[in-house]
Amino acid sequence: MVKRKTLYALLACVTILFILYTLVGNYLIHPGAEGFLSHKTGLKRELNLPVWLNIMYIHVAFACIAMAAGLLNFSNRIFEKSRKFHRINGYVYLVSVFLVVLTSGYMAPYATGGKITSIGLNTLNIVWLFITITALVQIKKRRITRHRNWMIRSYAFCYTNMLIHLISSLLHQGFGYAYVTSYTLGVYGSILLLLVIPSIIIRTIGSIRVE
Fold first, then answer.
1. Model confidence over 24-47: pLDDT tens digits?
2. Dihedral of the alpha carbons of 20, 26, 29, 34, in degrees to the nearest 10
3. What is the pTM of this model?
4. Burial zone of 39 (CB within 10 Å; 0-12 exposed, 13-18 middle, 19+ buried)
């Protein structure tokens, strides 16, 4: 139980800090995403900047909502106080994931690294949506443990952007790889980690619910 509480506290700190970092960075410091867009060279499709930016704003907003909603629903204290809130918040998470996947699908063809990166991002989106729907199916069948485990797997995908940039920064700044190559490897590396890490968590400590 102590391990679970510690993990949840750490998860909460990381999530809150990352949400704040993401919101400030995308809406206040770099609202035009100039730095990120500067790496999108050689695009085969013409990028409609105003539309792309609006889609990105929606994408970022619902990604943050999904992170916050998922974090709240892993709290046993909140669950015990109001199961109705847990259920409604679960649907908020589900809708948010769907909108993140939908907006990501629009942006994928313009991904840094071209078609190979686009394929990776679309694969990631399909897997995330499948896992999330599986979690919903499990709770509809009242398989609570399976639902929680699938939700752990689904929630891990909320950290896709974080992992992509951590891996790409490590490869680009630490090992001198070209940014485009680093980003592409970051996408595929994150898919692997997002499938492996939740399985390790489930097998070692089970569900991360806390008192």
1. 988 988 777 777 776 666 566 677
2. 150
3. 0.89
4. middle
